[in-house]
């Protein structure tokens, strides 16, 4: 045991009790026939919680963590502290990038040795904890070698390095029983067209993803392959802009039945969408997989990765998750970080506890709204005309026959209310 979280006791469901407790998240509460923990499938993000030093674009490190450093002993200390927090929160899952959990070596081989050693150590930690691996991924954006991308890099040696890294991370994810593997192209894009071959880079990205899928089947990995869209930041023009863009990419390379989406709230907003839009679109396309739950500061206009605190927003997101059938291998990963002034260990625990409560409140509101059925009934009523034999036959016809029918029947349609404000009022009854 370390003493980083000394004097902090494991959190319990205590709606009227201690300040550091769950007021709304009761993992054993049955909602729509299933335990809340099994619905929400919370995960702690290793990178923001234990690797991020508290910097921002205008200032450096503010956090003083005893495990910061580049040795294996410190990496193991970081793992010890991480699992202590997982146990305090009774967290069912966690997620990592390779660079979060191991020190960088002078060569790829040295980094790989460090990585394989820490994976074995994490496996030992997992044996004594309930916390499992939701997903693993590779950091192919942080090091300067990736300044021009990873899979899309103009240098084939960077492509090769990236492929070797993804192979190692997929092997490690499989070894730890991870339920998904995520590919996030943090710098898969370009800064200027003056030095960019768009067609070549797109082909490279497509082949890279095909290789990852092929390797999944080669090793018998049973989890899902997920792609996480992001519109900008850090690269000016990202190839994985949003769900619609990624779906077109998957169709082009024959991967629409192999790859699902890991959708982040903050990225959806940066793309000019709502979170629920991206979730609903992914579900309608059959590629919904998992979510990163956070929020942006709407005044700042960039990806601030704050813990969620807006129950109505969260409720609308989980409404779409439930409509999609809920999570299978996916879950709710808190891709969120403390504010750089929140220095104390208790801040880290409290941030996760509060976020879990916000999600629980939003989720229960979403479940109640879905079980009530009013919104879905009004949606069905709006499109009821398309259920008639005549309307269905029209979709099998052609423009000329439809035009003739309009003239023959003297059709003169009048608009009907979309009832948006009424629907918004209904939502507000639940949140």
UniProtKB/TrEMBL annotation:
Positions of transmembrane segments: none
Secreted found in the keyword field: no
Keywords, alphabetical: Carbohydrate metabolism, Cytoplasm, Isomerase, Magnesium, Metal-binding, Plasmid, Xylose metabolism
Residues that, per the record, bind Mg(2+) 2: 264, 267, 303, 305
Cofactor(s) for this UniProt protein: Mg(2+)
Keyword field contains Magnesium: yes
Residues engaged in binding Mg(2+) 1: 228, 264, 292, 335
Record InterPro entries: Xyl_isomerase-like_sf, Xylose_isom_bac, Xylose_isomerase
Major enzyme class: isomerase
Source organism superkingdom: Bacteria
GO molecular function: xylose isomerase activity
Assigned EC number: 5.3.1.5
Localization, UniProt: Cytoplasm
Active-site residues, record numbering mapped to chain: 97, 100
Cofactor binding note: Binds 2 magnesium ions per subunit.
Catalytic activity from the UniProt record: alpha-D-xylose = alpha-D-xylulofuranose
Family: Belongs to the xylose isomerase family.
SUBUNIT field: Homotetramer.
NCBIfam families: PRK05474.1 (NF003998), xylose_isom_A (TIGR02630)
Name of the protein described by the UniProt record: Xylose isomerase
Species the sequence originates in: Sulfitobacter faviae
Lineage, top ranks: Bacteria, Pseudomonadati, Pseudomonadota, Alphaproteobacteria, Rhodobacterales
């Amino acid at each position: 045991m370390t003493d980083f979280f000394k004097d902090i006791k494991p959190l319990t469901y205590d709606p009227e009790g201690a300040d550091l407790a769950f007021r709304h998240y009761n993992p054993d509460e049955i909602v729509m026939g299933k335990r809340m923990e099994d619905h929400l499938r919370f995960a702690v993000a290793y990178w923001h919680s234990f690797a991020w030093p508290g910097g921002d674009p205008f200032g450096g490190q503010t956090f003083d963590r005893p495990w910061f450093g580049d040795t294996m002993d410190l990496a193991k200390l970081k793992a010890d502290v991480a699992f202590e927090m997982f146990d305090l929160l009774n967290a069912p899952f966690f997620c990592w990038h390779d660079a979060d959990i191991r020190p960088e070596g002078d060569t790829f081989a040295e980094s790989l040795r460090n990585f394989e050693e820490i994976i074995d150590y994490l496996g030992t930690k997992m044996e004594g904890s309930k916390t499992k691996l939701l997903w693993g991924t590779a950091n192919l954006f942080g090091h300067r070698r990736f300044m021009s991308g990873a899979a899309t890099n103009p240098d084939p040696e960077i492509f090769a390095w990236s492929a070797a890294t993804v192979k190692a991370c997929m092997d490690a994810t499989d070894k730890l029983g991870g339920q998904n593997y995520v590919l996030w192209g943090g710098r898969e894009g370009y800064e200027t067209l003056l030095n960019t071959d768009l067609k070549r880079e797109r082909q490279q990205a497509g082949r890279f993803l095909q290789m990852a899928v092929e390797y999944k089947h080669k090793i018998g990995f049973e989890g899902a392959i997920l792609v996480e869209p992001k519109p900008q930041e850090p690269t000016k023009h990202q190839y994985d802009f949003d769900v619609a863009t990624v779906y077109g990419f998957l169709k082009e390379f024959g991967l629409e039945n192999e790859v699902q989406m890991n959708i982040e709230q903050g990225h959806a907003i940066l793309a000019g969408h709502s979170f629920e839009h991206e979730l609903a679109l992914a579900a309608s396309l059959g590629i919904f997989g998992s979510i990163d739950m956070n929020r942006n500061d709407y005044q700042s206009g960039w990806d601030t990765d704050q813990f969620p605190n807006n129950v109505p927003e969260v409720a609308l997101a989980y409404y779409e998750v439930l409509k999609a059938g809920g999570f299978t291998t996916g879950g709710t990963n808190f891709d969120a970080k403390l504010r750089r002034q929140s220095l104390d260990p208790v801040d880290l625990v409290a941030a996760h506890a509060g976020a879990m409560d916000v999600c629980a409140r939003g989720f229960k509101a979403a479940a109640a709204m879905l079980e009530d059925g009013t919104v879905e009934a009004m949606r069905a009523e709006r499109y009821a005309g398309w259920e008639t034999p005549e309307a269905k036959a029209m979709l099998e016809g052609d423009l000329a026959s439809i035009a003739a029918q309009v003239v023959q029947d003297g059709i003169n349609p009048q608009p009907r209310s979309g009832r948006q404000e009424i629907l918004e009022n209904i939502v507000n009854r639940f949140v």
